[in-house]
Amino acid sequence: MPISTEQVKLSSQEVEILLNGKKVAFAQECLIKTTRNTKLISSNGEGQACAVAVGAKQYNLTLLKVATATQDFDFLTFSDFDVEIKKQGKIHSFLHCEWSEVCEHIKSGKSVIQTVVITSPFLNITEV
Fold first, then answer.
1. Of 116, 32, 110, nearest to 78 (Cα)?
2. Which domains does the chain carry?
3. Nearest-CA neighbor of 10 among 91, 122, 76?
4. In the 8-state DSSP scheme, what is residue 47?
């Protein structure tokens, strides 16, 4: 049973995609969703749950209108990258990210990434 927390929308220049510490792209918008799986635990023979086991948090980021910072940008080859978001005087670093969905828009022979869904198991928050 997933528990969702508040979703937050952010604007451009605040959302950077980093590969090996190097900025390779940024997103114009970002939607963040945090989930945590829970499991009800019952004793042997009891019909009712007597405890709740809480799992680790999972961060799901939906990046919209992704633009490249470098020319050799191929999002489909990315693995184990970071996403940094600057908000309210802090840097929110989502670490060990993996993409789960990429939606491209092709117009006049050019490919533009419209939406990327990213998952991250870790969030590190630091002061600017």
1. 116
2. 2-127 (2.40.30)
3. 91
4. S
